[in-house]
Write a structure and sequence with these properties.
By secondary structure, the chain is α+β, with helices and mostly antiparallel strands. The chain is about 50% helix and about 15% strand. The protein is flat, with a radius of gyration of 24 Å.
């Protein structure tokens, strides 16, 4: 099943990349032009080739996902969601993680079991996510509540200076505590997760990895050098109701 016509082919893109870009100019001036701008032209063409390749992958993945829906579960897609998702997905095709989430969302609008869980805000939310946000959602799918902590320095018995907030005990591969802290803020901003420091997880051992993070160790060093006490507040990061439905609809 073909979902869309690509703007040209990869063969054409390759040919454009290797053709003389100044064939209508004099040879000497053309040589100078290529020396100055040739690298820019090649970089642009490579990006076009890469986008065409990603678009083809997207078409194939979406076709496969839609064709995998059992006939008795197929429903007409919500135009409100599917049209938004197709429009917003064009900005995210280079990310395999985000592309697959759009595939899941669009094909989900056509699956009777998934469609009731899809909210019209999902395409706009998904467009705003980074790859690391997607990895954090994958983590939250398997563990709906994560141990987090705020880390800083006690400046008095009742006051403190925060150095790092929302440091998570669990970090996806190829990520970092800093990136995950940013993702927690991002996902909380769009309403998919919540953070609280008025409660902690019952298994206190889950917080141990935080005490081995660079942020915690650096705070310890600062406190030792300044003869101050460490501020360490444990909390919970969890899925909201909207976040649970988003993961059901978008995360494989």
């Amino acid at each position: 099943m073909s979902l869309m016509d690509l703007p040209g082919s990869l063969d054409t893109a390759v040919k454009n990349l290797t053709d003389n870009p100044t064939q209508n100019m004099g040879q000497s001036f053309g040589d100078l032009w290529y020396l100055v701008f040739g690298g820019i032209s090649q970089a642009a063409n490579k990006k076009r080739m890469r986008y065409a390749s990603d678009l083809k992958k997207y078409e194939n993945e979406l076709s496969h996902s839609i064709s995998s829906i059992p006939p008795d579960k197929y429903v007409e897609p919500s135009i409100q969601v599917a049209a938004q998702a197709l429009e917003n997905s064009k900005y995210c095709l280079s990310s395999e993680y985000l592309r697959k989430m759009f595939v899941n969302l669009i094909s989900g609008t056509m699956h009777a079991d998934i469609e009731p869980h899809i909210h019209p805000s999902f395409p706009e939310i998904l467009k705003q996510l980074s790859e690391n946000d997607a990895l954090m959602l994958q983590l939250l799918k398997n563990r709906p509540e994560l141990p987090i902590a705020n880390i800083g320095i006690n400046t008095s018995p009742t006051e403190y200076r925060l150095l790092w907030n929302d440091i998570c005990a669990f970090i996806p591969s190829n990520s970092s505590t800093f990136k995950c802290s940013l993702s927690i803020s991002s996902l909380e901003h769009v309403g998919l997760i919540f953070t609280t420091y008025t409660a902690i997880l019952s298994d206190h051992d889950l917080y141990i990895p935080i005490t081995n993070t660079p942020e915690y160790l650096e705070a310890q060093r600062i406190c030792k050098e300044s003869n101050q006490n460490l501020y360490y507040k444990q909390g919970i990061c969890g899925l909201t109701a909207l976040g649970s439905e988003f993961i059901l609809s978008c995360v494989s």
